[in-house]
Design goal:
Distance between the termini: 43 Å
Order of helices and strands: HHHHHHHHH
Number of strands: 0
Oligomer: single chain
Helix content: over 70%
Structural class: mainly alpha
Largest sheet: none
Length: 200
């Protein structure tokens, strides 16, 4: 999948969604050519940031993760992102039938994957894991994700603006619930003894 689509979504989302819709990418090309490549950015950046730079709490020394612990987290993080894109694509296709927007799975996964592009790109910020900075940049990226998703749904799903608004809102609500569920699972795993290991 060409990189120009990602650039186009930042320059003129509606025009770029029109070009993407015409291409009709396969599930394989979308996952291999975009999702799996771009998911590497936050996973690798997070690994480097938490093992080499670390983060500070107050005036203390930087806190870092061990290489083994950070490696396991990075791999899980990577596969969680790829799985989330595929999962959202499946949900888009499933919900689309309710809203009279039945489209092939390939278009639904393309919509989910390209919508997540800002989130993948800001993953580079994890090279320097400062909580407040990552949080602020993350909020901006999240806002833009919502914007390009609302722009893309009527074009990719070929439905009216009114129906697309309701449809996109339902998908975003599902995504929010899924995110909260993933955070809850993370807390449970940490409590069960799978917490990260820190360097001394």
């Amino acid at each position: 999948m060409p990189l120009r689509h990602v650039v186009g979504l930042f320059v003129d989302p509606q025009a770029e969604w029109g070009r993407i819709e015409e291409k009709d990418y396969s599930v394989r090309s979308c996952i291999l050519g975009h999702t799996m490549v771009f998911s590497l950015i936050p996973a690798v950046s997070g690994f480097i940031g938490t093992t080499q730079i670390g983060w500070q709490i107050g005036a203390g020394d930087p806190v870092r993760l061990t290489t083994n612990s950070a490696g396991v987290i990075a791999v899980l993080y990577y596969f969680a992102m790829v799985s989330a894109v595929i999962g959202v694509g499946v949900v888009i296709r499933w919900m689309g039938q309710t809203y009279g927007a039945s489209q092939p799975l390939s278009k639904c996964i393309t919509l989910a994957s390209l919508t997540a592009s800002p989130l993948f790109l800001i993953g580079i910020m994890q090279l320097y894991p400062v909580l407040w900075l990552n949080f602020m940049v993350g909020l901006v990226a999240l806002g833009y994700i919502v914007y390009i998703f609302y722009s893309g749904v009527p074009i990719m799903m070929q439905i009216s603006q009114e129906r697309a608004f309701l449809f996109a809102s339902a998908v975003l609500a599902f995504g929010l619930v899924t995110l909260v569920a993933m955070l809850a699972v993370t807390v449970l795993l940490w409590g069960a003894g799978f917490a990260p290991a820190f360097t001394r």
